[in-house]
């Protein structure tokens, strides 16, 4: 059962460049670890998320992958705060590599609550 929920969680990701580009002019939350953006989804009742870890800030692929795993873990632990009618994009900032797990979870929770309290409109 745990494996099934993990598979469902991983399936709801943004993969196409056009979908990422749509979120450029949307509701934004900035912190020292990442930038979170939210925009109404094209698919009702199916919250999706995307991760951007820039090569400019993180040169090594192993480091970028570690940061993506860290962001996914923080999102998964705060999954209840994701609104089903929004797409989310998280852009890693240089501070994310030095952050501990607790700090990252708190910032993710704060970002999702901020977006949830000020729901995005088209």
Report on this model:
By secondary structure, the chain is of the alpha+beta class. The protein has one domain: Ribosomal Protein S5, domain 2 (2-Layer Sandwich). 41% of the residues lie in helices and 19% in strands. The chain contains 4 helices and 4 strands, in the order ααβββαβα. It has a 4-stranded mixed β-sheet with strand order 1-2-4-3, with helices on one face. β1 (27-30) and β2 (34-40) form a beta hairpin. The N and C termini lie far apart (36 Å).
Total count of helical runs of at least 4 residues: 4
Question: Which of globular, elongated, flat, extended, rod-shaped describes the shape?
Answer: globular
- What is the assembly state of the chains in this entry? single chain
As a percent range, the share of strand residues is 15-25%
Q: Kindly report the average pLDDT value.
A: 84
CATH architecture: 2-Layer Sandwich
Q: What characterizes the major β-sheet?
A: 4 strands, mixed
Distance between the termini: 36 Å
User: What is the rounded Rg?
Assistant: 14 Å
Q: Structural class of the secondary structure composition?
A: alpha+beta
Strand segment tally: 4
What is the level 1 CATH name? Alpha Beta
H/E element order = HHEEEHEH
CATH fold-level label: Ribosomal Protein S5, domain 2
Helix content range of the residues, please?
40-55%
Which stretches are low in confidence, meaning pLDDT under 50 for 5 or more residues running? none
The strand order across the widest sheet is 1-2-4-3
Number of domains: 1
